[in-house]
Amino acid sequence: MAERIPQSVIDEVRSQTNIVDVIQNYTQLVKRGREWNGSCPFHEDRRPSLFVDDKKQVFHCFSCGRSGTVFSFLMEKDGYSYPEAVLSLAKDLNLSGLDKYQGQPSARQEQFAAIFDLYQNAERLYTHILLNTTAGEQALAYLHDDRQLDDETIKRYGLGFVPANNVLLAYAKEHNLADKLLLESQLFIDQDGEISRDRFNNRIVWPIKDVRGQVRGFSGRSLDPNNPAKYMNSPESPFFNKGDLLYNFDQAKPAIRSGQPAMIFEGFMDVISAALAGATGAVATMGTALTEHHVTDLSKITDKILLVYDGDAAGQKAAKRSIPLIRQVAPQVEIGVVSLPDGRDPDEVRRDQGLEVLKQDLGHSVLTPTEFLIQAAKNGKNLENQSQYLDFLKETWPILAAASPVEQDYFLRQFSEEYGSDLAALRQEFQEFIAHRPVQAVQQAPSKKQWPQPETDQNSWADAAWQPDYSDGFESLAALGTPTSKTASADDLAGHLNAGLSRTERAEQGLLMAMIKSPVAMNVVKGVPDFAFVHPEYQLLMMLYEAYVKQGQQSFDLASFLDFVQKPDLNQKMMAIDREFGTLEVQRDSVNDYLRVIMKEAPYESQVEALNKKIALAKNQHDEMALIQLGTELINLRRKYSQQ
Fold first, then answer.
1. Per the database record, which ranges form the Toprim domain (predicted)?
2. In what order do the strands lie in the sheet with 282-284?
3. Does this model's pTM top 0.85?
């Protein structure tokens, strides 16, 4: 039986995991104020209702109500148990020594693990053959001489060679791997369900890894000049999807996170060359097909993407297609297009002119999308010809429409100076295009209430002899504390969470948060004779918090407490309390008001409601004696309450 995961391990996993990074594997999130917002992956969410707080490490959907921490998210989304969710994230963090906490894996998990182990072993085997055997001599000479790569670089990127003698198949048979596993791995060619040979025979291979560094497949280059299939990728499978994977993303991610722009290339060798020149945020697509998934993955960690496609027609077409895709999927991302001199690709520049020239070109040849698209619109046109010039202008109007006003003015002036057009006429024609183009609706992000953190401690709770005084009347329920400033809106999110709550329940929420935030308030309220929350869920939350503290927690952490509770309905209540009251100051007057509502207002209102129901029943039954008696009780109850 697996051992219980220590709290120290859980705390370490939680502290090293960013909930935004995890949830962005399932849905695109956009930063809005202090939170991240996106469509909820648990239901069809046309108006993005999911909010993620990366400071508190919690999430909440204002549509379906799901809320919790990174662990509960994985439990809901992937069907993990709590320990499985913790261990899954621990594996991503490369934390070792956790095998003793691992339960029995499912058959599907075992299958995936076995295939991934085969991929990792294949990479090591192929690299060993390339660097250390006579079978790899020709391929190694090609990489050394033609591609100008040293052994250190080859090892860093896991390059290898697959000889024509089915070496991986022999390895698999030696280790008694099942034929079904080999077929599902897609590392072999089969005929009528029978494995015949290694898929990448006689090819140099590049391992394709996911963002965690797990090998997912290979891309191979044939050494046979007569082979019409010069390049070959692993086929699409549950393990390998070109639309989901970016070459070198695992090694580029730290550099991109630290501030380097994400640079998207066409070829694997372009990525390696760029990284050797210092552009370590380099990744590549499988060919030229940038996908929404690629853009989403990159936009999670950067606000700048540079497209470095080849200068040929295919590369230019790919760049033109990628710009609107990035604008649509990640409008907050700044886009640049690197146009290398003479239409060369980065690997050619490195090999022919050296790393310093490539470094300069990558840093100083960046165009804005508008510059690039206008240059592309000029290609193949004789702009001295009036007809072709007018076609060029028609092609540029949509480009300029997406540009900033400064760029619009700059290029209109440039057209006027270079081609002799009247500037006023150009501006008029452009404005006519703007006026007649279809209007696209802009979806406004939901506004949020934000409470500033108090800068000074105004609690004044030091007087341990303070006794609660909840006898004074009040006109309305006070808030837990008074923020220095407060913004409200029609889409107030905290109000959404607490919509329909009675005054009593709001008082219970405020008092519970006061007790959590202030040990003095906790002791004072616990000392009130016969105190109890009206609603049992708040009584239970208070008891759970006391147990949480006894467990050794030095301070309240929302994510840690939610994981301690592990009850979806209670966690949602706690999320509502924290959002409404979590950043406000604890004040005596507020606590007095809460206690008055809970201890006096709530019982009185409950008694009045019960009497009114009895009176209504007596009226329906025409029971005059009961009406007189109940009416007298109601009058006496109101008189007694007014005298308190």
1. 260-341
2. 282-284, 262-265, 304-308, 334-338, 366-367
3. no
